[in-house]
Amino acid sequence: MAGTNTNFPAYSSQIKKLLSISQVQLNNLAFASDAGKLLGWFAGIAANYLPLWLVLIIGSILGLIGYGVQYLFLANRIHSLSYWHVFSLTFLAGNSICWINTVSYIVSIQNFPLDRQVAVGLSTSYISLSAKIVTDIVDVMDVFIPSGRAKTYLLLNSVLPLFCAVITAPLIRETKVDKSRKLSDGFRVMFVITLATGTYAVITSVRPSISKLLPRLLSLMGMGIFLLLPILVPLSERIKQQWHGKCRIRRDPRICDLSKLEEEKSRTTQEEEIKEENDEIGFAVMEEIGAKKMLMKLDFWLYFFVYLFGATLGLVYLNNLGQIADTRGCTATSSLVSLSSSFGFFGRLLPSLFDYLFSRSKYAISRPASIAVALAPMTGAFFLLLNNSHIALYISTAIIGICTGAITSISVSQTTELFGTKNFGVNHNIVVANIPIGSFLFGDFAAMLYRRRQGNSSTTSDIGSCLGMKCFQTTFVIWGCLCFLGTCLALILHTRTRKFYRHLRGGN
């Protein structure tokens, strides 16, 4: 439930009208949520000195304040709240996401030392479902008045993360393990569950075609069941441990089959050697460097602009999805947000799945090449938006959602492999600093073009709306060209790092 900022497009148009703000001011609110990541390093420091459950609670309380006060304002419980107050509260809410994500990363990494890439990839993919889940809840509550939907979104954003934090806080702990036994069976089951969850989310996101077959309440209950299914994996592991323990107790201690003991010992040794070798290969790095030296590297700046013209550009599009849908006369904004959320889930999951299946295969490709593969269809999606049909809007949104999620997931391993693990926290925070930068530059530029087109239309008020393809037409062309540039930069980075990845894959 940490992805509270991802459902902003579902109620952004209502916020614009309720607060009587311009398109530029609305974009600055989206920027404020992304800018909260600039202070995300506070969460990292807190996690070094405070219990993880407390860090989780602090993050959820920050979100409660950030979204809760905005809800009270829209519900007329608070009468004096300026635009800059709302801006600051949105910034605070955006920062709360960093605290929750930090705990999630640490728990996954510390408890799965030999499977951390798969564990982190699986767990973080679920953040993309936040918008889908909240939208389903709003639909079940039968809130059809636009202003009422905006209030409901803010209320759920404020209380749901805190509710989940209170439930999970007692369970958060670091398991001290020197060697982790093979967990491939458990992760294999998890991949099946997550793929089924994503498929269900996509199907139920196409609201017009599915609503007749599956009522909203049943749709939400189905999603709830899919979200609870992963609990079966550790429960089954615990049951197997207890069963094997009982079998050992009941076995006659005077009988000892030496051949079976030797076979079991040999098998365990081989498994440990394979896991240690996989762990060593999966975390090979080009060089261990700090932030200052990293900023002097050409590879860093190539990587920085690849991310800026890729994942960040996709996030800016998704932040403006509500306004884009309005200009094209599409009223199903919530369905679009759910669709982008569901495909973003798949996007974050697929890199981990490919790592799990092909990490040591000769068919595996480098991280920069993977990003280039994700950027190519994303470029086409921006140009497809020049078509005025609703089908083009849905297809483009799905493509941008899945590509943005994939690049975001790949970047975690990319930063580690290029610049090392010792300073990963600082280095990756510098890389993702391009998100608020891009959110401000690309978003404000799009808002200015929107206002310019609006001024040329019959609408003269800055608070009014621009209608028609002309509102974002130039923006889509520029975004498509920038995305194509990012693809070229990713290929250049692939060329520069090809020797390293060839060595990493065992010379293939």
Q: Would you mind describing this structure in some detail?
A:
With 508 residues, this protein is mostly helical. 76% of the residues lie in helices and 0% in strands. The chain has helices spanning 8-19, 23-35, 41-49, 52-74, 83-111, 116-125, 130-140, 146-168, 184-205, 207-210, 216-228, 232-250, 258-282, 291-295, 298-319, 321-327, 333-358, 367-384, 390-419, 424-431, 434-456, 470-496, 498-504. Helix 4 (52-74) packs antiparallel against helix 5 (83-111), helix 4 runs antiparallel to helix 8 (146-168) and helix 17 (333-358) packs parallel to helix 19 (390-419). It is globular and about 65 Å long. Residues 249-256, 274-282 and 458-463 have low confidence and may be disordered.
Could you report the average pLDDT, rounded to the nearest whole number? 82
Pattern of helices and strands: HHHHHHHHHHHHHHHHHHHHHHH
Alpha-beta classification: mainly alpha
Strand content: under 5%
Distance between the termini: 41 Å
How many runs of DSSP E, i.e. beta strands? 0
Low-confidence stretches: 249-256, 274-282, 458-463
Tell me the Rg in angstroms.
24 Å
Helix content: over 70%
Subcellular location: Membrane
Organism: Datura stramonium
Transmembrane segments: 50-74, 86-107, 153-173, 185-205, 217-236, 300-318, 365-385, 391-410, 431-450, 476-495
Domain Nodulin-like: 1-235
